[in-house]
Each structure stands twice: as C-alpha cells, then as structure tokens.
Amino acid sequence: MIAQVSTWFVSPPNIMQPSAKGETCRPVRPKGRYSIARSVPAVALPWQWQSSASASSQLFNNNFPAIATSRMRASTARMSLTPPLRPVPLALQLWSVKDSVAKDFAATAAKVAALGFKGVELAGYGGLDARGTKAALDASGLRVAGMHINPAKLGEINQIIDDALTLGSKHVTCAFWPRTHYVSAAACERIGLRMAEFGANLRAVGLQFSFHNHDAELAVHDGRSVLSWILGAAPPRLLAMEPDVYWLHHAGYDPARFLLEQGARCPLIHLRDEAEIGYGPVDYPKVFAAIDAVAVAEWLILEQDRFNYEPFESLRRGVDRLAQWGRA
Questions:
Q1: What top-level class would CATH report for the domain 16-324?
Q2: Above 90 in pLDDT, residue 44?
C-alpha cells in the first residue's frame, strides 16, 4: 500500500490542501456548480510496474489483470499489417499546425478534414471561444477527440468542464507536467493523487481525465519510473493514460510492450515519429498490433512538431502512410 500523504506538492496551481495527519489529501473545492470533488484514497494498483533505463531489461512485472491475453500473444507473434478488426478513428492534435490555427481556426479545420482526419485534439482555440470552435469543427465535419490543458489551468475546473461539455469532448488530458517537479518517488505519488482528485471532478459529470507523457516521465526513482509512481497513485477510472508512442521509444521503452501491458488504461494514443510518421525509428506495425490486441483505444491521434516539408504536406504524407497500414 502506498503511504498516505499529509503534505502537498503545491506548485502549480494548488487545488489541494493537506488534511489532518494520517488522512488522504482533500480538495480545495472550487466554487460553483461543479464543486463536487471527493477525497480519493491513495491505493496501490495490483499491476504497478518496475522500470529500467535499459530497453532490454524487464520493464514491467507481470501481475497486471489479463486483458485479451490470447489476442496479445497471437498479435505479438504475428505483428501483421492486416486491417484492424475494430477500426479506430484518426484525429490530429492541432498543436501540429498551431501557427495555422492562430491565423484562421475555421480554415485550418477545413484543411484538416480534407486530409481525411475524422477528429481533432484541441490545444487552445485559436482566438475563438468554445462555442465558436465547436461551430467551426461542425462545419468541417470534425469531432473533438479530446482537449489538452496546461497543468497551470487545473484550478479552473468550472471553465474546463463548461468547455468540454460545449465541445462534446469526453476526454480532457493534462498535456505535460513540469519535469522539475519529479524530484522523488513521493513527489511523483503526490502528483498522481492530485490528478486523481481532478479526475474525480470530471468523472462526476461524465468526463475522463488523462495524462500525456513525454520522456521525463520515464526517469527512474527507487526502481520505478516517474510514470509508474504517478499512475500507481491514481485509480484508472480517475486517471487514464494518453501514451505518446515516440516519447516512449525515445526514452528507451518498447511502445508495443507498454501498450500490451498498460493499454487497458489508454483510450487515446498519440502517434508521433521523429518527423513524418512512418519514416522514423518507431516500429509502427508492432505498435498497431499491440493496439489491436488490447482493443481499448477510442482514438489514434497524430501529432507532429518536426517537418521536412510544409506542415500540411507533411501531414498528407503521414496520412498516406497510415492508410497503407489501414489506419486512415
């Protein structure tokens, strides 16, 4: 059992306060009709995993719940490129075209739809409000796969919920966490507890909170990765995971293995490569086989922040490659 916490890691913004010694942290309830946070006990999940800096080492222990075990074994043995039995729609993380979004959100949405994307993941609204954003997306036939929020905005719970409900976004994702906060295993657990409290607020109105990783979350404290400590402090129903395939690879982890072992917690999956997807070091056939085996993903979300061509041309090439794999 993870030790219960009586002090809080306050930065950034403090929506939690330490409760009496020996009790779990309790939320500072935000004012308004969404003030519904509840105390969430710090529980250790049975499938918490060990990490290592070496990709060839044992990254996870094997006492996690069995998820489609036979399909996992068959999939990892084949790693085939056959079309998925359960098609997962493709969205674009709009941070990929942030300059275009800032100039003209509606025109950008139309270009994204023309490339064949079914939805978008938002990272701001390009000067519009949530209603204007929804109208522009509706006009282009795009759905909202999810919305990224800055951790500095976690205190604005009412606005986040209002925007998500207006946009029809089931998923709200913390886009990153400052890596300077990952100072110890205990600090990482406290971050996980804080995310669980925020996730409880969202769950109460039918929304799902997730966390998006970079490479910093694969650093190790006390024999386990930062990500393991964070996720281990929060029940999956309150904190899902949006794994970034490239950042897992970059940190020396096998993304396919991560997805096989933790994929039941991953409704959103970020597809990224060093530049255009499919032209870098990530073994995407293996990744897609793992996604198919777990069969939980609701959206595949392409993100690109390095370009060898004009951004929309790069994205077109990426979509063409994904189509060759039956993913677009």
A1: alpha beta
A2: no
